[in-house]
Design brief:
The structure is a single chain. The chain is mainly α and about 375 residues long. It has two domains: about 25-165 and about 260-385, no CATH class; about 170-255, no CATH class. Helices cover about 65% and strands about 5% of the residues. The protein has 15 helices and four strands. The strands form two sheets. A two-stranded antiparallel sheet has the order 1-2. Strands 3-4 form a two-stranded antiparallel ribbon. A hairpin with a 2-residue loop joins strand 1 (about 170) and strand 2. Helix 3 runs antiparallel to helix 4, helix 4 (about 85-115) packs antiparallel against helix 7 (about 140-165) and helix 4 (about 85-115) runs parallel beside helix 11.
Length: about 375
Amino acid sequence: MTSDSGSALTATQAATPTSGAARDRRGSWIPTSTMITTRIMELRKRRGLMAALIVVNIGIPAIFLLVRLIAHAVAPKSYGPAGGYDIFTSLVAGVMYVFGFIVAATLGCTAGSVDLTDGMFRHLVITGRSRLALYFARIPAGLAIIVPMVAVGFTIVCAVCVFAAPTKLDYQGVPVPSGLSLTGFESWAAQHPKEAICGLPYRGGKNGPQVGVPCFIKQNGTVVILPGSSGFKHISPATEKADAVAIAKQNYLEYSRTFLYPSNSLMVKAGLWIELEAAIGFIVGLGLASLMGQRTVAVVLMIVLEIVLTPIFSRTAIPHLINVQRGLVGLATAHLEPGGLPRGIGGGGGGGPPLIPESTTVAVCVIVGWLVVWTALGAWRMSKRDA
């Protein structure tokens, strides 16, 4: 009887380590909240990097807008309002889009190589934690840093551009009410035919107006008829209104893109777009630095990708390689840019050649592919690296 009890006790004790091993989750590839928090603290301790992130994402837009606010307050006739649609689009597409990607990529390259450069990789491995978990913990940790910074800087831009926007709209030198529909714009032109004919550009057309009145709009909005011209005397009021409406219809598309301040939908779309660009920069930089095992060259390659390669290959079609060009993540991101923004450096200026054509579905697949492939390469290299 005693022998049987002892055997049962021994079997139970033998099973205990197995059940404990089953509860030991250190081998899981899913990172824990403690691992993520630790990675956040390690990145935040790098004060130089954090200062660069704050300066680029928050400091540059804030200082630029502050200078414009002060200049407009001191000399309102010499310096225009600090906010408005044009300021918003210039800051988002020209500054936050490009430099946000670069600093996010720098953060990703740092997160992917910091353990090796600091000599801590061996110590992390001997804890028994999964190498995949150690890598995947870097993704939410880095995004927890870069995403709020981009959001703060973008919120400052939106606030100033809305609350410090100009109070009147001059379109092509003509004072026009803002936010009119096509019918409203044509109605305004019918009520102000001379202003529409003299101020709005005539873009030609077989059925276009034939007035040919030599006139212009002064800075104060008054119509001036050039000397030696009969002006509008030979034109009937009905023809005058019809010509004004026709010219307004030609200019409505461009007018509809010009507002006193950005719309709510444009601000939401632009915010999500630059957050996406920052996330891409971080995750690709993380995978590249992990694959290479060091930061400096990875940062340089990311800058070259954004500043040099993307603008060139996004607009110059190379025979037999156009499908390869469509696989460029910068081109894919440029195709997802909100319609109310000018093309950033990734897609080139608005007056240059158009982007290489690509459907939205293909653009989304390219972005997802870049994120998955570089994450897989970085995780694979970490799992195979010698401790």
